[in-house]
Amino acid sequence: MTSISTLVLASPADILAAVPYLLGFHPRDSLVVAVFSGGVLRVTTRWDLPIEPDALDPLTALLRREPVTTAVLAGYGPAALVTPAIDAASRLLREAGIEIVEALRADAGRYWSYVCAQADCCPPEGTPYDPVSGRVAAEAVLHGLVALPDRRSLACSVEPYGGLVRVAMGQATRRVTAETRTLLTAADRPDEAAAAFVSSGLARVRAAIDRYDSGGRLTDEEAARLGLDLMVVRVRDEAWALIDHGDAHVALWRDLTRRLEPRFVAPAASLLAAATWHGGDCALAGLALERALAADPAYSMANLLCQALRHLLPPDAMRQRMPTPDELDAQMGPPRMSWLVPLLARLGDEPSLLAG
Q: Dihedral, CA atoms, 225, 226, 232, 236, nearest 10 degrees?
Protein backbone atom coordinates (compact mmCIF):
# COMPACT_ATOMS: atom_id res chain seq x y z
CA MET A 1 0.00 0.00 0.00
CA THR A 2 1.62 3.27 -1.09
CA SER A 3 2.04 6.08 1.43
CA ILE A 4 1.33 9.74 0.78
CA SER A 5 4.79 10.35 2.28
CA THR A 6 6.26 9.46 -1.12
CA LEU A 7 4.88 12.76 -2.47
CA VAL A 8 6.77 16.06 -2.27
CA LEU A 9 4.56 18.92 -1.04
CA ALA A 10 6.15 22.30 -1.80
CA SER A 11 3.25 24.77 -1.65
CA PRO A 12 -0.24 25.32 -0.17
CA ALA A 13 -1.74 24.10 -3.45
CA ASP A 14 0.30 20.88 -3.12
CA ILE A 15 -1.04 20.36 0.42
CA LEU A 16 -4.63 20.83 -0.71
CA ALA A 17 -4.07 18.49 -3.64
CA ALA A 18 -2.68 15.82 -1.30
CA VAL A 19 -5.44 15.93 1.33
CA PRO A 20 -8.06 14.07 -0.76
CA TYR A 21 -5.57 11.21 -1.23
CA LEU A 22 -4.92 11.12 2.50
CA LEU A 23 -8.64 10.81 3.14
CA GLY A 24 -9.64 8.77 0.08
CA PHE A 25 -12.18 11.40 -1.03
CA HIS A 26 -12.52 15.13 -1.71
CA PRO A 27 -13.78 16.73 1.53
CA ARG A 28 -16.53 19.29 1.87
CA ASP A 29 -17.45 21.35 4.94
CA SER A 30 -14.58 19.69 6.80
CA LEU A 31 -11.61 20.35 9.06
CA VAL A 32 -8.56 18.20 8.32
CA VAL A 33 -5.57 18.03 10.66
CA ALA A 34 -2.36 16.21 9.71
CA VAL A 35 0.33 15.89 12.40
CA PHE A 36 3.97 14.99 11.86
CA SER A 37 6.89 13.75 13.94
CA GLY A 38 10.27 14.73 12.55
CA GLY A 39 8.79 15.08 9.07
CA VAL A 40 7.01 11.70 9.22
CA LEU A 41 3.22 11.77 8.95
CA ARG A 42 1.70 10.26 12.11
CA VAL A 43 -2.06 10.82 11.86
CA THR A 44 -4.51 12.52 9.53
CA THR A 45 -8.03 13.06 10.77
CA ARG A 46 -11.16 14.90 9.64
CA TRP A 47 -14.14 16.50 11.36
CA ASP A 48 -17.44 17.57 9.86
CA LEU A 49 -18.17 21.30 10.15
CA PRO A 50 -19.41 22.91 12.23
CA ILE A 51 -17.49 21.04 14.90
CA GLU A 52 -19.16 20.04 18.15
CA PRO A 53 -17.88 21.66 21.39
CA ASP A 54 -15.87 18.59 22.53
CA ALA A 55 -14.98 17.26 19.07
CA LEU A 56 -11.29 18.19 19.30
CA ASP A 57 -10.70 16.49 22.68
CA PRO A 58 -9.11 13.42 21.03
CA LEU A 59 -6.62 15.76 19.36
CA THR A 60 -5.50 16.99 22.79
CA ALA A 61 -4.96 13.40 23.93
CA LEU A 62 -3.04 12.62 20.74
CA LEU A 63 -0.66 15.54 21.29
CA ARG A 64 0.07 14.33 24.82
CA ARG A 65 0.68 10.78 23.67
CA GLU A 66 2.62 11.14 20.42
CA PRO A 67 5.95 12.91 19.75
CA VAL A 68 4.30 15.39 17.37
CA THR A 69 6.45 18.32 16.23
CA THR A 70 4.54 19.98 13.37
CA ALA A 71 1.02 20.14 11.96
CA VAL A 72 -0.87 21.19 8.83
CA LEU A 73 -4.51 22.30 8.96
CA ALA A 74 -6.96 22.54 6.07
CA GLY A 75 -10.55 23.69 6.27
CA TYR A 76 -13.03 23.21 3.45
CA GLY A 77 -16.03 25.50 3.08
CA PRO A 78 -17.06 29.11 3.73
CA ALA A 79 -15.14 31.21 6.24
CA ALA A 80 -18.04 31.24 8.71
CA LEU A 81 -17.71 27.46 9.03
CA VAL A 82 -13.96 27.03 8.68
CA THR A 83 -12.41 29.89 10.65
CA PRO A 84 -13.81 28.97 14.11
CA ALA A 85 -12.61 25.38 13.62
CA ILE A 86 -9.15 26.46 12.44
CA ASP A 87 -8.88 28.83 15.41
CA ALA A 88 -9.86 26.12 17.90
CA ALA A 89 -7.45 23.55 16.45
CA SER A 90 -4.64 26.12 16.19
CA ARG A 91 -5.08 27.07 19.83
CA LEU A 92 -4.78 23.45 20.95
CA LEU A 93 -1.70 22.88 18.82
CA ARG A 94 0.08 26.03 20.00
CA GLU A 95 -0.69 25.26 23.64
CA ALA A 96 1.03 21.90 23.09
CA GLY A 97 4.07 23.57 21.54
CA ILE A 98 3.36 22.25 18.05
CA GLU A 99 4.52 24.30 15.08
CA ILE A 100 1.73 24.98 12.57
CA VAL A 101 3.46 24.81 9.21
CA GLU A 102 0.36 25.86 7.28
CA ALA A 103 -3.32 26.51 7.94
CA LEU A 104 -5.56 26.87 4.91
CA ARG A 105 -9.16 27.41 3.90
CA ALA A 106 -10.30 26.09 0.53
CA ASP A 107 -13.57 26.88 -1.17
CA ALA A 108 -14.81 26.98 -4.78
CA GLY A 109 -11.38 26.34 -6.31
CA ARG A 110 -9.52 29.00 -4.27
CA TYR A 111 -7.55 28.91 -1.04
CA TRP A 112 -6.63 31.37 1.70
CA SER A 113 -3.81 31.00 4.25
CA TYR A 114 -4.25 31.74 7.96
CA VAL A 115 -0.44 31.73 8.33
CA CYS A 116 0.66 34.00 5.49
CA ALA A 117 -0.45 37.66 5.54
CA GLN A 118 1.47 38.82 2.46
CA ALA A 119 -0.91 40.09 -0.20
CA ASP A 120 1.50 39.35 -3.04
CA CYS A 121 1.39 35.59 -2.45
CA CYS A 122 -1.89 35.26 -0.51
CA PRO A 123 -4.28 37.89 -1.94
CA PRO A 124 -7.57 38.72 -0.15
CA GLU A 125 -9.60 37.25 -3.01
CA GLY A 126 -7.83 33.91 -2.60
CA THR A 127 -5.48 31.94 -4.83
CA PRO A 128 -6.83 29.61 -7.55
CA TYR A 129 -5.74 25.98 -7.36
CA ASP A 130 -6.55 22.72 -9.12
CA PRO A 131 -6.94 19.70 -6.79
CA VAL A 132 -7.55 17.28 -9.67
CA SER A 133 -5.05 17.73 -12.50
CA GLY A 134 -1.94 19.16 -10.83
CA ARG A 135 1.44 17.51 -10.27
CA VAL A 136 0.60 16.09 -6.83
CA ALA A 137 -2.67 14.54 -8.02
CA ALA A 138 -0.91 12.98 -11.00
CA GLU A 139 1.87 11.54 -8.82
CA ALA A 140 -0.66 10.24 -6.29
CA VAL A 141 -2.56 8.39 -9.01
CA LEU A 142 0.72 7.02 -10.35
CA HIS A 143 1.47 5.66 -6.87
CA GLY A 144 -1.91 3.91 -6.80
CA LEU A 145 -3.67 6.36 -4.47
CA VAL A 146 -7.35 7.16 -5.00
CA ALA A 147 -9.49 10.20 -4.17
CA LEU A 148 -13.21 9.67 -4.80
CA PRO A 149 -15.50 12.65 -5.43
CA ASP A 150 -16.98 12.70 -1.91
CA ARG A 151 -17.52 10.64 1.24
CA ARG A 152 -20.70 9.13 -0.20
CA SER A 153 -18.71 7.71 -3.11
CA LEU A 154 -16.30 6.14 -0.62
CA ALA A 155 -19.20 4.68 1.35
CA CYS A 156 -20.53 3.08 -1.85
CA SER A 157 -17.25 1.17 -2.17
CA VAL A 158 -18.14 -0.95 0.89
CA GLU A 159 -21.90 -1.27 0.40
CA PRO A 160 -23.43 -4.67 -0.41
CA TYR A 161 -23.62 -5.79 -4.01
CA GLY A 162 -27.11 -6.07 -5.41
CA GLY A 163 -28.86 -7.67 -8.35
CA LEU A 164 -27.74 -11.02 -9.73
CA VAL A 165 -24.53 -10.93 -7.68
CA ARG A 166 -26.58 -10.83 -4.47
CA VAL A 167 -28.90 -13.61 -5.68
CA ALA A 168 -25.99 -15.90 -6.59
CA MET A 169 -24.24 -15.22 -3.30
CA GLY A 170 -27.43 -15.94 -1.37
CA GLN A 171 -27.79 -19.30 -3.10
CA ALA A 172 -24.16 -20.20 -2.39
CA THR A 173 -24.56 -19.21 1.26
CA ARG A 174 -27.61 -21.44 1.70
CA ARG A 175 -25.72 -24.41 0.26
CA VAL A 176 -22.66 -23.85 2.44
CA THR A 177 -24.60 -23.20 5.64
CA ALA A 178 -26.71 -26.35 5.17
CA GLU A 179 -23.59 -28.43 4.57
CA THR A 180 -21.77 -26.93 7.54
CA ARG A 181 -24.75 -27.33 9.89
CA THR A 182 -25.03 -31.02 9.01
CA LEU A 183 -21.27 -31.57 9.39
CA LEU A 184 -21.02 -29.99 12.82
CA THR A 185 -24.24 -31.15 14.45
CA ALA A 186 -23.81 -34.76 13.32
CA ALA A 187 -20.25 -35.08 14.65
CA ASP A 188 -19.69 -38.02 17.03
CA ARG A 189 -16.61 -36.30 18.47
CA PRO A 190 -17.49 -32.58 18.63
CA ASP A 191 -14.07 -31.28 19.65
CA GLU A 192 -12.35 -33.25 16.89
CA ALA A 193 -14.87 -31.85 14.39
CA ALA A 194 -14.17 -28.36 15.71
CA ALA A 195 -10.40 -28.87 15.37
CA ALA A 196 -10.81 -30.00 11.76
CA PHE A 197 -13.09 -27.05 10.98
CA VAL A 198 -10.66 -24.53 12.52
CA SER A 199 -7.67 -26.09 10.76
CA SER A 200 -9.45 -25.87 7.41
CA GLY A 201 -10.52 -22.31 8.15
CA LEU A 202 -6.96 -21.20 8.92
CA ALA A 203 -5.80 -22.72 5.65
CA ARG A 204 -8.62 -21.02 3.74
CA VAL A 205 -7.64 -17.62 5.19
CA ARG A 206 -4.06 -17.95 3.98
CA ALA A 207 -5.11 -19.33 0.60
CA ALA A 208 -7.57 -16.45 0.10
CA ILE A 209 -4.89 -13.85 0.85
CA ASP A 210 -2.59 -15.53 -1.66
CA ARG A 211 -5.40 -15.62 -4.23
CA TYR A 212 -6.03 -11.87 -3.98
CA ASP A 213 -2.32 -11.13 -3.86
CA SER A 214 -2.04 -12.73 -7.29
CA GLY A 215 -5.04 -10.82 -8.65
CA GLY A 216 -7.57 -13.63 -8.29
CA ARG A 217 -10.95 -13.74 -6.58
CA LEU A 218 -12.92 -16.26 -4.51
CA THR A 219 -15.90 -18.01 -6.04
CA ASP A 220 -19.27 -17.47 -4.37
CA GLU A 221 -19.05 -20.77 -2.48
CA GLU A 222 -15.47 -20.08 -1.40
CA ALA A 223 -16.49 -16.62 -0.19
CA ALA A 224 -19.48 -18.00 1.69
CA ARG A 225 -17.33 -20.69 3.31
CA LEU A 226 -14.71 -18.16 4.40
CA GLY A 227 -17.48 -15.97 5.82
CA LEU A 228 -18.52 -18.88 8.05
CA ASP A 229 -14.90 -19.55 9.01
CA LEU A 230 -14.47 -15.98 10.23
CA MET A 231 -17.30 -16.40 12.73
CA VAL A 232 -14.77 -18.43 14.74
CA VAL A 233 -12.59 -15.97 16.68
CA ARG A 234 -9.42 -18.01 16.26
CA VAL A 235 -9.80 -17.98 12.46
CA ARG A 236 -10.66 -14.27 12.40
CA ASP A 237 -7.67 -13.46 14.61
CA GLU A 238 -5.40 -15.39 12.25
CA ALA A 239 -6.55 -13.10 9.45
CA TRP A 240 -6.07 -10.07 11.72
CA ALA A 241 -2.55 -11.11 12.69
CA LEU A 242 -1.54 -11.58 9.05
CA ILE A 243 -2.49 -8.03 7.98
CA ASP A 244 0.44 -6.10 6.56
CA HIS A 245 0.86 -3.29 4.03
CA GLY A 246 0.01 -5.56 1.10
CA ASP A 247 -2.98 -4.55 -1.01
CA ALA A 248 -4.35 -8.11 -0.94
CA HIS A 249 -5.82 -7.70 2.55
CA VAL A 250 -7.88 -4.64 1.64
CA ALA A 251 -8.99 -6.21 -1.63
CA LEU A 252 -10.03 -9.49 0.02
CA TRP A 253 -11.88 -8.06 3.02
CA ARG A 254 -13.57 -5.34 0.97
CA ASP A 255 -14.81 -7.99 -1.47
CA LEU A 256 -16.18 -10.15 1.34
CA THR A 257 -17.71 -7.15 3.10
CA ARG A 258 -19.70 -6.44 -0.05
CA ARG A 259 -20.57 -10.07 -0.92
CA LEU A 260 -21.38 -11.78 2.37
CA GLU A 261 -24.91 -12.07 3.73
CA PRO A 262 -25.58 -9.53 6.52
CA ARG A 263 -25.45 -12.09 9.35
CA PHE A 264 -21.88 -13.02 8.39
CA VAL A 265 -20.50 -9.59 7.47
CA ALA A 266 -19.24 -8.23 10.83
CA PRO A 267 -15.90 -10.14 10.93
CA ALA A 268 -14.99 -9.36 7.31
CA ALA A 269 -15.94 -5.68 7.67
CA SER A 270 -13.89 -5.45 10.88
CA LEU A 271 -10.91 -6.99 9.10
CA LEU A 272 -11.36 -4.46 6.28
CA ALA A 273 -11.30 -1.71 8.91
CA ALA A 274 -8.13 -3.14 10.45
CA ALA A 275 -6.42 -3.44 7.06
CA THR A 276 -7.33 0.06 5.89
CA TRP A 277 -6.45 1.61 9.26
CA HIS A 278 -3.10 -0.20 9.14
CA GLY A 279 -2.53 1.47 5.76
CA GLY A 280 -3.46 4.92 7.11
CA ASP A 281 -6.93 5.13 5.53
CA CYS A 282 -8.99 6.12 8.58
CA ALA A 283 -11.96 7.27 6.48
CA LEU A 284 -12.47 3.89 4.83
CA ALA A 285 -11.79 2.15 8.14
CA GLY A 286 -14.61 4.15 9.72
CA LEU A 287 -17.03 3.26 6.94
CA ALA A 288 -16.11 -0.43 7.22
CA LEU A 289 -16.84 -0.28 10.94
CA GLU A 290 -20.23 1.25 10.22
CA ARG A 291 -20.99 -1.83 8.11
CA ALA A 292 -19.73 -4.17 10.84
CA LEU A 293 -21.76 -2.54 13.62
CA ALA A 294 -24.88 -2.31 11.46
CA ALA A 295 -24.65 -6.09 11.10
CA ASP A 296 -23.79 -6.74 14.77
CA PRO A 297 -23.79 -3.74 17.16
CA ALA A 298 -22.13 -5.83 19.89
CA TYR A 299 -19.27 -7.16 17.75
CA SER A 300 -16.25 -6.69 20.01
CA MET A 301 -13.53 -6.26 17.35
CA ALA A 302 -15.53 -3.53 15.63
CA ASN A 303 -16.17 -1.71 18.88
CA LEU A 304 -12.49 -1.96 19.85
CA LEU A 305 -11.40 -0.46 16.52
CA CYS A 306 -14.05 2.27 16.81
CA GLN A 307 -12.55 3.32 20.13
CA ALA A 308 -9.06 3.35 18.62
CA LEU A 309 -10.16 5.56 15.73
CA ARG A 310 -12.18 7.85 17.99
CA HIS A 311 -9.14 8.45 20.20
CA LEU A 312 -6.85 8.96 17.17
CA LEU A 313 -4.58 6.07 18.11
CA PRO A 314 -1.93 5.27 15.49
CA PRO A 315 -2.26 1.77 13.96
CA ASP A 316 1.10 0.74 15.42
CA ALA A 317 -0.27 1.14 18.95
CA MET A 318 -2.56 -1.84 18.47
CA ARG A 319 -0.37 -3.64 15.97
CA GLN A 320 2.42 -3.97 18.53
CA ARG A 321 0.03 -5.75 20.90
CA MET A 322 -1.34 -8.13 18.28
CA PRO A 323 -0.21 -11.72 18.94
CA THR A 324 1.33 -13.82 16.19
CA PRO A 325 -0.46 -16.97 14.98
CA ASP A 326 1.88 -19.09 17.15
CA GLU A 327 1.10 -16.94 20.18
CA LEU A 328 -2.61 -17.29 19.46
CA ASP A 329 -2.23 -21.07 19.53
CA ALA A 330 -0.38 -20.90 22.85
CA GLN A 331 -2.93 -18.55 24.41
CA MET A 332 -6.08 -20.29 23.22
CA GLY A 333 -5.03 -23.92 23.34
CA PRO A 334 -6.51 -26.69 21.21
CA PRO A 335 -9.80 -26.00 19.37
CA ARG A 336 -13.04 -26.92 21.14
CA MET A 337 -16.61 -27.07 19.92
CA SER A 338 -17.43 -24.14 22.21
CA TRP A 339 -15.35 -21.95 19.85
CA LEU A 340 -17.99 -22.56 17.18
CA VAL A 341 -20.98 -21.38 19.24
CA PRO A 342 -21.15 -17.94 17.51
CA LEU A 343 -21.11 -19.67 14.13
CA LEU A 344 -23.83 -22.15 15.09
CA ALA A 345 -25.99 -19.33 16.40
CA ARG A 346 -25.79 -17.75 12.93
CA LEU A 347 -26.63 -21.12 11.36
CA GLY A 348 -29.77 -21.31 13.47
CA ASP A 349 -28.64 -24.06 15.87
CA GLU A 350 -28.91 -23.83 19.62
CA PRO A 351 -25.49 -23.87 21.32
CA SER A 352 -26.86 -26.13 24.05
CA LEU A 353 -27.10 -28.97 21.56
CA LEU A 354 -23.33 -29.19 21.46
CA ALA A 355 -20.91 -30.87 23.79
CA GLY A 356 -17.37 -29.71 24.49
A: 180
- The upper half-sphere exposure of residue 52, i.e. CA atoms within 13 Å in the direction of its Cβ, equals 6
Based on the structure, what is the number of domains in the chain?
2
| Structural contact between residues 266 and 295, judged by C-beta atoms closer than 8 angstroms | yes
157, part of any domain: no
**Angle between helices 190-213 and 247-259 in degrees, nearest 10:** 120
The torsion angles phi and psi of 128, rounded to 5 degrees, stand at -65, 145
Say whether pLDDT at 350 is over 80. Answer: no
The pairing of beta strand 70-76 with beta strand 99-107: parallel
Q: Is residue 230 situated within a structural domain?
A: yes
Q: By residue range, what is the domain housing residue 17?
A: 4-151
pTM: 0.81
The answer to whether residues 202 and 225 belong to one domain is: yes
Q: Compute the C-alpha angle 325/328/329, nearest 5°.
A: 90
* Among 114, 130, 151, residue at a domain's last position: 151
User: Could you tell me if residue 85 is inside a domain?
Assistant: yes
pLDDT digits (tens, 9 = 90+) for 207-240: 999 999 999 999 999 999 999 999 999 999 999 9
Question: Nearest Cα to 339, choosing from 231, 186, 181, 265?
Answer: 231
Position 174 scores a pLDDT of: 94
